[in-house]
Amino acid sequence: MGKIKITVLYQSGNGAEWDSPRDKRQDEADYPVEEYLENCGMVHTVSPGKSFKFVTPYFGDWQYPNGIHCNWTFLGHSTCHPSITCDDVDLRDNPECETEYLEIIDGLGGAQRYCGKMKDVSGIKSSRGGRDLFVTLQTMNGTFDREYAGFLCEVRCNDGKVALKDEFPSKHKEDLRCICGYQNKDDRIVGGENTTMNEFPWMAAIVNKGTRSPRCGAAIINDRWVLTAAHCFVLTKLGADQIDVLFHAHTLDMTLREYHADTALGEIGSIRGSGYNLDIVTDSDEKTLRVEVAEVINHPLFNAKYDYDVALLRLSHKIDFSVANAPIPICLPEPGLYQETFQGTVPTVAGWGLPHQDAGGSTRILQKLEVPIIDAQKCQELMPTTLTQRMMCAGFETGGKDACMGDSGGPLSLKDPKTKQWTQIGVVSWGEGCARKGRPGIYSRLTELVQWVYKNTETAKWCRKK
């Protein structure tokens, strides 16, 4: 008889059946624990009619082994708020579930750990209006024998009855000394205008290492992390050791393509963008803060259609927001605002990208442009490819003004007229050319992605909102 393979996670709703070999000793199991671990770290989108089950190794056959660390991510959908229900949880009991546990968190402060024998793990859902859930199984190291069955849990779409609570101290920390999203008082974008020095103090430039030549834009969101676009790294295979992040930068060097210095702006090969003939500026000239990057985390579901186009850069050291000339992080949307369209608003995009789609080099001076939000249905009519719920449109149907190549990863931000604070609502993602008639810019919609951002930056310090 052929080998029966248990996978760590089973998807229902497609006619598949979940099989588990029964009545076997651990040393007779049909699969090694390494095979189980290969499926750890997977990300799954839950939608109506599709559910998932996850289990401890050898569930139903033998006790689970020591030294297991496995995690799963379950992402919701516009019509699905996932919840988790488990058969009786039977794990090794330990004080405060510190060393062995089943953990369910939402990245928003809601969390619960289970250990020992539990019978009330039913209908667990995200807190604060969120919908994504992140699960971890941790078992203790050691050589002792086990007498615990483990668990089998199911994730499905329904309105869970029990929201996660902050049952143990949240890893999220708020720095009460700083406030996010405030501009300094000193008061590649096509058709944009120059910014003043440090006008957007959260703005960051991702540059080739040791240079001032921009690759993409970004924004600082807390004391350790910068938010940008995944395609800046996935499609170019760019690594953390190849880049620096610059804060308090205004005039950069030009990143060149095929160019002709003597052509007028708008002609093929022109490098006559704003500041093209200025003297070279150094980090010390602008009091630029240059920081190395320790890690790049691309959204695991990013694909060739630019869906889930967000990435996080972990800086090599923490930023002290209390020192002179320090950047100021931008605010992020509150969780649970999935229905917010921002219709009727005119946010601002900034970057050092090409001044024209045929330009021979990037714009040297940071540009800004106000771009009205375009209704999702109208935008879909304009664009030739299908837009997902993680995408939003902004720009001008008549063309002439837009973000362009090199602006990728930069923030699309909206100013609250009452508090005067800026919130990042999008990330520059893609478009058909630049500033073409009937082809607006496409941005990653942060209201759909903010839970993933919070989960992956959980040890950082955040500046508070007013």
From TrEMBL:
Record protein name field: limulus clotting factor C
Keywords: Disulfide bond, Hemolymph clotting, Hydrolase, Protease, Serine protease, Signal, Sushi
Peptidase S1 domain span: 189-458
Catalysed reaction, written as an equation: Selective cleavage of 103-Arg-|-Ser-104 and 124-Ile-|-Ile-125 bonds in Limulus clotting factor B to form activated factor B. Cleavage of -Pro-Arg-|-Xaa- bonds in synthetic substrates
GO biological process: hemolymph coagulation; proteolysis
UniProt-listed PANTHER family: ACROSIN-RELATED, HYALIN
CDD domains: CUB, Tryp_SPc
Higher taxonomy: Eukaryota, Metazoa, Ecdysozoa, Arthropoda, Hexapoda
Broad class of enzyme this protein falls into: hydrolase
Organism: Allacma fusca
